Amino acid sequence: MTTRTVPTGLDADWAQQVRELARERNAVILAHNYQLPEIQDIADYVGDSLGLSRIAAETDADEVIFCGVHFMAETAKILSPDRRVFIPDANAGCSLADTIDADQLRAWKAEHPDAVVVSYVNTTAEVKALTDVCCTSSNAVDVVNSIDPDQEILFLPDQFLGAHVRRRTGRENIHVWAGECHVHADISPTNLVDTVTANPGAELYVHPECGCTTSALWMAESGELPQENTHILSTGGMLEAARKSTSEKVLVATEIGMLHQLRKANPATEFMPVNPKAACPYMQMITAEKLLACLRNQTDEIFVDEKIAAAARGAVERMVAIGNPGGGE
Ligand code: SF4
């Protein structure tokens, strides 16, 4: 593990302090792929939301420090109810998860009482508790295909992932919630075409939540983008592809924190963002200073009502039973 930078306002030995406190508390530090580089470098594990939640469920540590956004730490708590789970700043939300709350979902379900509810993992525990089966960007198509073709589906909260699933499954009976992540929505088809045109021969990794995904698929199939070089991948899928890549250059359409892991996974390839401004402000709320404070002061702890946690866990477990969950965002 290496720490390359000393964040402003911290002592040079901040990383050592974090490690010592984590050891004293018997805490495991998990960091999402979109975290600031210094947080990724100090963590015990770096990964995608579901992968990290599974590590939280299996760890021997007494405490889990989840460096990511709130719904991710909540999912870790849902899968690991007997362990104390902390997030260095409970205000680190998610604009996508915030597009639908439990009351809105109840009202939507009341309009379609026979529909099966499929929720992407970027949702709150309360929304998961009202969900029949969760999905990730890796398995959304498989999850929808596992449902009776005549059965109406409510798909939420991401409209781009929903459009991707509707197109791949060819189903007309999917109602898609009009939610979006402002970070991914900012990666537009124009960004994509301009960057691809300026970098002929480069491979292109696109996250299915991006505003450009459906256009990217359409453009790849119609020949406007090089089909063989265009890959729609979850964050876990991007890492796997990066490790194997022999390309000189890869263009990446997702949150820019992902580039740190991709560059570490394959230093021989140049990884370039499609939109260098696509940074998640919520992910960046988790700073080294707050991580230190979290370990020192035991803040902020995540609590999920037991009944809600049990119902939400059921929706996650039904997804895992279908297979290939990958890791979510
Ligand atoms: S990048 Fe978007 S979907 Fe991901 S945590 Fe940030 S706001 Fe949520």
UniProtKB/TrEMBL annotation:
Note on cofactor: Binds 1 [4Fe-4S] cluster per subunit.
Reaction catalysed by this enzyme: iminosuccinate + dihydroxyacetone phosphate = quinolinate + phosphate + 2 H2O + H(+)
Residues the entry annotates as binding iminosuccinate: 32, 49, 120-122, 137, 207-209, 235
Alphabetized GO MF terms: transferase activity
Pathway note: Cofactor biosynthesis; NAD(+) biosynthesis; quinolinate from iminoaspartate: step 1/1
Binding residues for [4Fe-4S] cluster: 94, 181, 280
Cross-referenced SUPFAM superfamilies: NadA-like
Protein known as: Quinolinate synthase
Gene name in the database record: nadA
